[in-house]
Amino acid sequence: MKVILFGATGMVGQGVLRECLLDSAIEAVLAVGRSPTGERQPKLREIQHEDFTDYSDIEPQLTGYDACFFCLGVSSIGMDEERYRHLTYDITLAAANTLSRLNSQMVFVYVTGRGTDSTEQGALMWARVKGKTENDLLKLPFKAAYMFRPAGIQPLHGIRSKTAWVQAIYVGAAPLLSLLNRVAPKYMTTTEQVGRAMIKVAREGYPRPVLESEDINYL
Ligand SMILES: NC(=O)c1ccc[n+]([C@@H]2O[C@H](COP(=O)([O-])OP(=O)(O)OC[C@H]3O[C@@H](n4cnc5c(N)ncnc54)[C@H](OP(=O)(O)O)[C@@H]3O)[C@@H](O)[C@H]2O)c1
Known about the structure:
This protein has about 220 residues and is an alpha/beta fold. The strands form two sheets. It has a seven-stranded parallel β-sheet, sandwiched between helices. Strands 7-8 form a two-stranded parallel ribbon. The two termini are about 20 Å apart. It is built from seven helices and nine strands. The protein has helices at about 10-20, 80-100, 125-135, 165-170, 175-185, 190-205, 215-219; strands spanning about 1-5, 30-35, 45-50, 65-70, 105-110, 145-150, 150-155, 190, 210. NADP nicotinamide-adenine-dinucleotide phosphate binds near residues 7, 10, 11, 73 and 87.
């Protein structure tokens, strides 16, 4: 399986990258990002890209892939709706439109979050924007698309969040989060479980297009 990974420098993306590099069934990983991952591995190739709404200059390098794991995303905290929509909806759909056109057999996996609003009408801004993003991704002509909606994600194996307050919470609450992961899989998963689940759905599929934390942990 050949995989394109967006957001490989983030907390979720680092976890997904780690699992992809460890999985012998994945022969190549292309990380598309604005900054380097710092990883050196024969099966990893990186493209440093600037405009995440336009991929025309790198299109030839984005063909021939089986899966895309889209882990690029931002927190809505302190952001107005227009900016959050741009960074969430516009960037994701620009990449997905390009990839679905270039790779008709691709499986696309997108990370949203628990509470994403599929009606696009609810009171929470971030949930509406993520809901619209999910809904429009599911209309694209991919072989299949899966929406991952984790609640909390515990970073393992030295992985760090790019967002300082998220990192502080995960460090401070690490023992509690490990416990939660065992006793309340509805509310907590790990970067390792997210990465492994993405690889599994890309390879084998899943009965539903939207996966909550319990589905991710079950996989
Ligand atoms: N962390 C959690 O506990 C959690 C839980 C549920 C859902 N999620 C969702 O998972 C997704 C990823 O979260 P995360 O915790 O991994 O975030 P993160 O650690 O802050 O990483 C964000 C990633 O997105 C990239 N990125 C952000 N803005 C960008 C832009 N304007 N252009 C290009 N790349 C950009 C970053 O690249 P740079 O390295 O270049 O900044 C980085 O690779 C988000 O959608 C989030 O809502 C996270």
